[in-house]
């Protein structure tokens, strides 16, 4: 991995779901949500 780069995976566990996402997948979701005005 490059210095200062992103990498890795994470589990997001809520009451209703368990998700396994890579960093780029999570960043893509946050960017899409921000464009829709869901995330500040």
Uncertain residue ranges: none
Order of helices and strands: EEH
Number of domains: 1
Q: Report the radius of gyration as a whole number of Å.
A: 12 Å
User: What's the count of strands?
Assistant: 2
Number of helices: 1
Estimate the global geometry from the Cα principal axes: flat
Distance between the termini: 29 Å
Major sheet: size, sense and barrel closure?
2 strands, antiparallel
Sheet with most strands: strand arrangement: 1-2
| Helix percent band | 25-40%
Mean pLDDT: 82
Proportion of residues in extended strands: 25-35%
Class per helix and strand makeup: alpha+beta
Description:
With 40 residues, the protein is an alpha+beta fold. Strand 1 and strand 2 form a beta hairpin. A two-stranded antiparallel ribbon has the order 1-2. The longest helix has 14 residues, at 23-36. It has one domain. The chain is built from 1 helix and 2 strands. The N and C termini lie far apart (29 Å). The model has no long low-confidence stretch (mean pLDDT 82).
Structural key phrases:
about 40 residues, alpha+beta, two-stranded antiparallel sheet, 2 strands, about 35% helix
Short description:
The protein is of the alpha+beta class and 40 residues long. The chain is built from 1 helix and 2 strands.
Which helices and strands, and how do they pair?
Layout: E1 9-13, E2 18-22, H1 23-36
Antiparallel strand pairs: 1-2
